[in-house]
Amino acid sequence: MDEPRTIFHVDMDAFFASVEIRDDPGLLGKPVLVGGVARRGVVAAASYEARKFGCRSAQPMAVALRLCPHAVVLPGRFEAYAEASDRAFEVFDQFSPVVEGLSIDEAFLDMTGTTRLFGAPAVAAEKLRAAVRDATSGLTCSVGISAVKFLAKIASGHRKPDGLTEIPPGAELEFLRPLPIEELWGVGPKTAERLRAHGITTIADLERVGRPALEHWFGSSGVHLHELAHAMDPREVVPSRDRKQISHEDTYAVDVVGEAAIRRKLLSQATRVADRLVAKSVVAKRVQLKIRDTDFRTETRQCTLRPGTDDARVLYKAACDLLQGVEIEGRSFRLTGVGAGDLVPRGVQGAQLDLLPPEPNARGIVEPVRLQGVLSAVRSKFGHKALFPAEAGGEARPDSAGGLSDTREED
Questions:
Q1: Is residue 71's pLDDT more than 90?
Q2: Which of 68, 140, 213, 283 is the 20 to 30 Å CA partner of 159?
Q3: Residue in 49, 106, 166, 249 annotated catalytic
């Protein structure tokens, strides 16, 4: 008889805030908020001490500080978070060959067939949590276990922080029924409001509603709700071992106006993305520009690169070319971002980079691709502003974001 499907959902606890507390033990026990402190700042992460006051991620920082005026506010160190994420995902890979990353701090693992290696699911989960703690120098994670994918995700949030919740096969409906409808994956405030208007407040209420009625109310989404309420979720864990996009974006405290100012931001962001590409030994074959104005209109543009690159100058030029397709006149902007996608190992494109000082070619010129490796290595050691290209239309060294930066690796 085949072994039942076993899926873990692993979620790092208050990830950004926990990294800050790990690196500064003086913050232990204090309410910590990570995010932008300017007038448009938002909370990227709140420690559990801050959550007791009602603070949460994606909340305006001004609101969070009204709820918890004595909170310690930190601007965020995304390089540190990316490094901690890499260590955690290395542990995930040791426990399962099938890992689906959802974000920098959470993932699904298909643990089916691993009993002989790691023991029963709960035993394996405890081993994984201990391994993550060791690999990340003390960071904790919570794990949900189920044969049903979306239930594993719900379960991981039930005993946070540093918790473990297992839903044995056959107990799925018993676990689901008492929960509020908002717990279902994909039920947002608007859907919840419509369900409550029909007298549906718990998943047990939803389970009792027939599929035809839900389909009449919500169309194809009603079918999905019916299946979730009956603990039906046939989706597999889809491996995402290779990151598909690396991006860096900034939300600014002061509006950015004019092409020259935007280009300076793009230069800084392209440089950071290039450094991450070099660190991952990958090159990008696609560049994306993201820009949002003060009316919250978000526009994206993208183009293909051939061959792929990890050169900041190439990424920057592509982003500036894409900017030409955006109407800038008369608009102010609160966010810009540069992304690199369609990533392939650098070896596919050419020889591996040597991070020793580069040799000039026959004309006495350092080859750009080799130069990028050296620039990235220097910035890795001495900080983001250590070295920057002197070109980019005569613009000055990239300035600071003036807001919350976000370095992303997305699936």
A1: yes
A2: 68
A3: 106
